[in-house]
Amino acid sequence: MWDAVYDVSDYVYGEQPNDFLRNNVNALPRGKVLCLADGEGRNSVFLAKLGFEVTAVDLSEVAIKKAKTLAQEHNVEIHFIHADLSEFDLGCNHWDAIVSIFCHLPPGLRRPVHAKVVKALKTNGVFLAESYTPKQLEFKTGGPSSADMMYSEKIISTELSELNFLLLEEKERFIQEGSKHNGDSHVVQVIARKESD
């Protein structure tokens, strides 16, 4: 499915980083950052240009090929991994930051991935995420077609309860990211820190 989505000439989510990530990048500790479901590379390239040591994982080989092209155009090095998050090992106490931008997963996968995120962050590591909420279905401006794939403050606070939330907020905002995310939207935004093992 995702290969077909990305198999077009343009960057379907644009070449610029997600606004929430760009506006809050200073919340991320310098060092190793993992970008989950990074797609065509807009966010990993942005972070690499700022000097982060970036690893990006995605399910789509087509997206990774486009991401590599974007990285070359910006003269940055990124470690790209083609993997399904159901099988990908995030490691233990390994990442200074983990970034998840519109990485929508079914509940049966989302919960174990969130558990892996907590385990994989170093002490004082930061998780930064933006996702659509079920209310996004009313806007029809991007994201999954099923509420089961959406996130909320309650889901995040429950499944990432071991982290200290610096920001956890549902809000309406205008998003313009390529052809796939375009218009008024409803999102949940997260910045959370791992205080200890």
Task: Write a concise synopsis of the structure shown.
This protein is an alpha/beta fold and 197 residues long. Helix content is 29%, strand content 31%.
Defining key terms:
197 residues, alpha/beta, globular
Largest sheet: number of strands, sense, barrel closure:
7 strands, mixed
Low-confidence stretches: none
Structural class: alpha/beta
CATH class group: Alpha Beta
Could you tell me the number of beta strands?
A: 7
**What share of residues are in beta strands?**
25-35%
Count the helices. How many? 7
CATH structural fold name = Rossmann fold
Mean pLDDT: 96
Spell out the helices and strands N to C: HHEHEHEEHEHHEE
N- to C-terminal distance = 37 Å
Which range best describes the helical content: under 10%, 10-25%, 25-40%, 40-55%, 55-70% or over 70%?
25-40%
What is the overall silhouette? globular
Radius of gyration: 15 Å
Number of domains: 1
Main sheet: strand order: 3-2-1-4-5-7-6
Level-2 CATH architecture: 3-Layer(aba) Sandwich
CATH superfamily: Vaccinia Virus protein VP39
Keywords: Methyltransferase, Transferase
Domain Methyltransferase: 33-125
GO molecular function, one term: methyltransferase activity
Organism: Vibrio albus
